[in-house]
Amino acid sequence: MDNYSENRAVIDRYSLRGKVFNKLREGILDGGYPEKYELREAAISKEFGVSRTPVREALRQLELEGLVSVIPNKGAYVNGITSKDIYDIYMIRSYLESLCAKWACENITSGQIEDLEEIIYLSEFHIKKKHMDQIFELDNRFHLAMYKACGSKILEHILSDYHRYVERIRKNTLSLQERAGMAVMEHKAILNAIKDKDEEKAGQLANEHILKAIDNIKSQGIGNLMQKHEDNGQGA
Fold first, then answer.
1. Does 83-234 carry CATH code 1.20.120.530?
2. Mean pLDDT for each consecutive 10-residue tract of the chain (236 residues)?
3. pTM of the model
4. Minimal CA–CA distance to 89: which of 63, 66, 68?
């Protein structure tokens, strides 16, 4: 096999692994694969039309993320996202989104500001119309645009992952029009602080935005373990 063919084989293998990994990860986070569900290599290989090698590699990668447990001589089982995971992710996000907003004060571009302003404008319009699906998508767009505006690829990647991990929970938190409206007002305040280059205020508002999301989750009865962890002194 010549060098070109070898390189092509490597690229194909990793692209297949990526395809399988992303599909499985999406299924786990969306609840398509419930907790303790066995991910059988043979069945996944057949479903995705690939050999077992990229499936095995994808399962190892999912294990590194804590979404799957691979037990030797038994199989791979879904861990999923627990209530404790949700609590941990939101608390970590509260600190990292604060940092993101502070860095955005220095790194955001005029084009990114215009994009965020448009997202807020559209969000306010759809809240009046009670278009909850559009509001959720615009909330996604706002946070992802903010992550990009911080100017750090590393922080953007970490926050984007955490954002995806709790997508189902976030959709529940925005299902009430009152909370959705408050979230947009909080977004606007964060953006105004960033435009004013006020790092401390932007960071504080971003932190409070996530903490309010935690309060909203608890008020809806989602993730009772979150209250337990706060009672044990692990809260903000």
1. yes
2. 42 68 85 88 91 91 89 88 85 97 98 98 92 90 97 96 82 71 95 98 97 83 47 38
3. 0.74
4. 66
